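Hey L., structure's done. Input below.
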Amino acid sequence: MPTVKTQIDIAASPAEVRKTQSDIFAYAQFFDFEKYEAWAKKHLIGVAVTSGDKTDLKPGDKLKVSLTGISFPATVVVNTPEEFQWCGSIPYIFTGYHSFRFLPSEETPGHTTLVQQEEFSGMLSFLVGPTWSGGKETTANFEGFNGELKARVEGSQE
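Output:
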């Protein structure tokens, strides 16, 4: 099963990266899905909550994930302070378990190590293996999003 995994250090605590802001509709840097399109330009351009409470996502809640050139339904699998994961699928072709983990940095106290990872399965999942162009492109897209999230979180602290 091919896996793509990236990580980045963010100069904020895990709680700050995921924090709930006073405006409940602009809740948390990471979960401010409606504003992704304004700042996330590298591939993941939108996530819409289609069922469930967008301020308190639970396993089983439904999302619509929009990437450059494609949208697909996804289901929330995990939503804890340490991890957010969904499962998205293009039936029979790809299924992906996509996770974001918010870990205390082991290198820089007070910072977060954001780990973004996806495990792929399905008929064409081999195309996102590390030696295929799909895997290299997915890695670049994850790294781009990580950098954009880092800039957004760190920029909001100024």
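The radius of gyration is 15 Å. The mean pLDDT is 81.

-- N.
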